[in-house]
Amino acid sequence: MPILPKQRDIFPAELLDEQEVADAAGWIAFYTLSRREKDLMRKLEAATVPFYAPLVKRRLRSPGGRTRVSYVPLFPGYVFSRVDDEQRRAALATNTVARWLPIGDATAFIADLRNIKRLIDTDQPLTPEARLEEGQPVRVRSGPLLGLEGMVVKRRNEQRLVVAVRFLNQGASIELEDIDLERL
Predict the structure, then answer these.
(1) 1-103 is classed in which CATH architecture?
(2) Distances (CA, A) of 81 to 30, 39, 59, 177
(3) pLDDT tops 60 at residue 22
(4) Would you place residue 1 in the very low, low, confident or very high pLDDT band (cuts 50, 70, 90)?
(5) Domain 124-184 falls in which CATH fold?
(6) pTM of structure
């Protein structure tokens, strides 16, 4: 049973679709005050400001042995948004934003966010990757992640596919078998 139901982490739902991102200008990253990501997301949605802040499922065991599910930000402190000047000022007026950062290469950034969203949508356990390591670039050749590109990292005798958001130098990884991957 979740502590709280999952709140919307993307608004509008088609924000990262091909047609929607034809105009890649106006993307920024809001860096929030400590643990205020969801508060900012609720306020942006109420003001109809487009945003994406990936939330991932986290399972915890209570002292009584019950499993509790919560949804936490994959990139703590960050909410990504496509805004004009008026919407940016409205977001800053919410008192949840510490600062904002312009995104230089918005097209590559959007592609990275799409890949992260595909990983999250598989509903498999994800591991946040705080600092990325260089590895072998690969492409997934079967399954629900068909065509997804990333790099391979080995940890504790398991092979993981890391999908990165280069703007943040962070990402997420998922365990995959050798047979599912092909070298680029």
Answers:
(1) 2-Layer Sandwich (3.30)
(2) 7, 14, 28, 34
(3) no
(4) very low
(5) SH3 type barrels. (2.30.30)
(6) 0.87
